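pls design
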């Protein structure tokens, strides 16, 4: 059950990072706010990797050729997933945006079965379905125009599917390393992913909109915090991926909806509707079933 501890730590850190990124979209735009977590995150990942290497007393892994397609899939899918998530957050409330994205456990389970052969226990499958129903209930919103609701729903669900693909890509990369220490495998993979992402988005902005790069550097204080929390969260996500299926990790990660609810109340002053409370209860039951399954 160590994966559950890793997942809860990652979920808390990611909620803090997402809240910071949401605020940065107003000044940096969607792409700029997306880039913050990678550009300011990879130096921390390098520090984590150096610390792990010193602690285990081993050199860095020599990744096989098959490692790179998995790592690239994880890195590029995560860039697109983060950008679409922030786009939804500009249209809907923080909690509802989170709920859309957190429908990802179902595609994670399907992708994991198809691409990695990850099996899901019956009780865990029931937990995934119940918790996903809970986030769908939370995402329903009265009074919004059908066009606005449909558009943000489609983008949010697409974002969740991209996050699912990213999780499977990274778990696949970790499994190809075949190193003795799972901490080293996870840390090496997260560092490679962040370096790829930082390089790709920096090049894109340098070619398309250099002003955004200057704006990011000017907003270095909140960006530094977002980068650290992003790298910290990724480290613990990957530790979870190294020892259990991505579906288990991403289902337990639905506790982020509860963390997001707290952030929405305390920071963004968004009220909680009765329907959202029902959804939260369903999420909690689903998470409880998942833990019981293991």
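designed seq:
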């Amino acid at each position: 059950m160590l994966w559950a501890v890793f997942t809860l730590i990652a979920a808390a850190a990611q909620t803090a990072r997402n809240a910071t990124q949401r605020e940065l979209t107003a000044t940096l735009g969607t792409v700029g706010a997306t880039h913050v977590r990678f550009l300011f995150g990879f130096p921390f990942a390098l520090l984590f990797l150096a610390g792990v290497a010193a602690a285990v007393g081993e050199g860095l892994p020599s990744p096989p050729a098959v490692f790179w397609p998995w790592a690239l899939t994880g890195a590029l899918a995560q860039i697109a997933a983060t950008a679409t998530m922030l786009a939804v957050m500009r249209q809907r409330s923080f909690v509802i945006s989170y709920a859309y994205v957190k429908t990802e456990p179902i595609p994670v389970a399907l992708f994991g079965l198809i691409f990695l052969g990850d099996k899901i226990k019956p009780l865990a499958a029931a937990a995934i379905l119940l918790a996903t129903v809970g986030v769908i209930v939370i995402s329903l919103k009265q009074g919004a125009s059908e066009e606005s609701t449909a558009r943000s729903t489609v983008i949010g669900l697409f974002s969740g599917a991209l996050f699912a693909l990213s999780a499977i890509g990274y778990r696949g990369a970790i499994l190809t390393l075949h190193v003795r220490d799972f901490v080293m495998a996870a840390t090496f993979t997260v560092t490679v992913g962040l370096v790829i992402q930082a390089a790709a988005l920096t090049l894109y902005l340098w070619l398309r909109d250099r002003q955004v790069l200057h704006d990011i550097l000017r907003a270095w204080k909140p960006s530094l915090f977002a980068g650290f929390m992003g790298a910290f969260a990724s480290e613990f996500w990957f530790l979870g991926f190294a020892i259990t299926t991505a579906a288990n990790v991403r289902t337990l990660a639905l506790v982020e909806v509860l963390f997001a609810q707290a952030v929405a109340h305390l920071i963004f002053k968004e009220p909680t509707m009765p329907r959202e409370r029902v959804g939260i209860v369903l999420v909690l039951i689903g998470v409880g079933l998942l833990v019981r399954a293991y």
